[in-house]
Automatic annotation (TrEMBL):
PROSITE patterns: ABC_TRANSPORTER_1 (PS00211), ABC_TRANSPORTER_2 (PS50893). Transmembrane segments: none annotated. This is Ribose transport system ATP-binding protein. InterPro entries: AAA+_ATPase, ABC_carbohydrate_import_ATPase, ABC_transporter-like_ATP-bd, ABC_transporter-like_CS, P-loop_NTPase. Residues 6-462 form the ABC transporter domain. GO terms for molecular function: ATP binding; ATP hydrolysis activity. Pfam families: ABC_tran (PF00005). Keywords: ATP-binding, Nucleotide-binding, Repeat, Transport.
Amino acid sequence: MPHTLLEIRGLHQYRGFRHVLRGLDLTIGHAEILGLVGRNGSGKSTLIKTVGGQLAPREGTMLLDGAPYGPQSPAQAREAGVSVIEQDFAVAPEVTVVENMLRHTDLAQAPRQEQLMRGVQVLGRTGFDLDLERPFGELDPAGQALAEVLRVQAEGARLVIFDEVSAVLDDLEISQLHAAARLLRESGCSILHIAHRLEEVTALSDRVAVVRDGVVVEVVDADRAEADDLVRAMLDRGLPERHQAQRPAGREVLTVRGLAADGLAEPVDLTLHGGQVLGVVGLRTSGARDLVLALARQAEAHTDGRVAHVAGRSDDQLEARQSDVLTAGLEGLDEHERLQAAFVRAIEFEMETSNLHAPVKNLSGGDQQKASIASVAETTADVVVLEHPTRGVDVGARTRAYDVVDELVARGKAVVVLTSDLSEVLSMCDRVAVLHQGRVVAVLDTADVDEDVVMDYALTGASAPRRVSREGGRRSAPRH
Ligand SMILES: Nc1ncnc2c1ncn2[C@@H]1O[C@H](COP(=O)(O)OP(=O)(O)OP(=O)(O)O)[C@@H](O)[C@H]1O
């Protein structure tokens, strides 16, 4: 490992009464990208908040370049050279790229021309294709991530923390983020990269650290890291093998002809069958999400509103009690029975169970997402539409999310899943509709294709010629 930049020894941290970090040790080298993985609730965000100055360290030592480090605020952390790029970025939409870049520097209040001059300098070092005067809200998430990389550069960061930044990006956008991260590393900056998709973490990182129950249990070189070993270290067990039977198409639950929507270049014909899962994939500008929203609206109109649509965590859900969300759809329960049922569900999903009366927002990010998946498990709807159901969910609980989908289709429901995770499409869906530039360019049986074929359609609108194995198609490796 290169010369140490940050050294953490015996770090303890609490959230409320909860003892989350329990003597955590970690070192990050100069110009090193360190991946950090761990199951939901293992303490990753708590660690980031402590290193980034949002939570004052309770016990333990941190040294930055050999000097004692214990920031009492994010501003103090930045002053010492530690900047955080937050999940979902937390930047007001009207703020321009250059204003965002300089918002924590002494040019924050400077005249526009002065800001632009500095902005051009920083931008010039990166070669990013970004308009400095564009409002943040008009950028796609990859552009927003790059704008945030410019900000940490302008702040002169020595250590940048990526807090699940890649979670909202599609595969093409992730490659842009990785290029930006490598550029930061070349300029001497270190990165702590937190993410759940193990192949993405190992592709970018030099080493990968695994957190379990508030301590680092393993650190491995990324090029020697095996997904199965990382999973075992994270969960303290392996993953069950998942065998997906080909599900026969059930009754036609919804047939749409000439479905139009903003974002779709031509009308779409599609049939949703009960007992099957349809995946919808495509790059951000492909119209994939527009199609899914239009399908949800059509389903609403044609099934007497019997549609369950889960689109991430809503504000209402975040404020609701965990026990109510976990038992949504279960009727006729008294208070005690509801709590019991919620407890069982939380255990099934390997969620935190210490205070089911508390609002969902008190859970870790991944546990919040699990709660929203759990909220449709008992739905009486005919059509279930899930947008990015496993975003931020750890590999162990993902299996449970797939089980929920299996149970829904076993009950005859038609499930539509929008996801940017191609291997998940293959392991979860029976058919996949691939969109490219506003058109459905293919509807494929997932049994006949592999990730490369789906990616070809998504990127180019067509499938590149390739050799097909005798068995008639190759499925990708099991999903981690
Ligand atoms: N505001 C809060 N109040 C009470 N407990 C909290 C709060 N935030 C987090 N916790 C608890 O602290 C523990 C660690 O949470 P943390 O957010 O650090 O996990 P994580 O590893 O980042 O999870 P994820 O992968 O889901 O983001 C969890 O058990 C969580 O329920």
